[in-house]
Design brief:
241 residues; alpha/beta; 37% helix
Length: 241
Amino acid sequence: MRHPPEVAEKTIAITGGDAGYFDLMKDCIASLQNVPEGQALALGILDCGLTDEQRAWCRDRGATLVAPEWDFDFPGRDRLKDGYKALTARPFLPRYFPGFDLYLWIDGDCWVQQGDAIALFLAAARTGALGAAPEIHRSMRHYHHAWGEFSAVCGAAYEACFDKSTAERLVRYPMINAGVFALTSAAPHWQGWATVLGEALQRSTDMTDQMALNVLVYDQGFACEPLPSRCNWPVHHATPA
């Protein structure tokens, strides 16, 4: 009995930003393409106001550039820079970059040091869950002396986006960092995130994308595969050793 040939999985890594963010994006892209796991991925860029020279640099590295729209209508939008579209466009990555099975988002101010972290994000997403890294580790400052600062900032953002009871409840959960994540194209999280984000943007633009993603997981029960903290290490919480 003949078995049908296996179809190769199509995976893309996507980052984005505006011209002022580009120096960080260059380091991110270079680090991504410096490891075998990153070299195996297609590269997508959300062009939120790059210069022609910056676009050429990206294309020289094999990137596909897409200029995102304002995917939501919300108060105060006209006062925001186009770079904010890199946040609001993320629930719509399969629409902006169609034809892929797996999507890995990486913020432009991140950089890859160990390629196996990319493999872990993708493996987590293949389960149908959101592959993401909670901000929790014994050495992080907000689990020691800076809890008051962390809970005040994040609690205020939760309350502005949702309400006080949501803030008091979810600020005690490990923050799911939206700066790096992976999902399959068929994951229900895309639409779920878009719905929660669209509603929250009517009330606040402060950390709204990340607050909405946490509500999606913790309050609405969308599956999340939590990855080790080293897979997305926020250096403002603890200096890497």
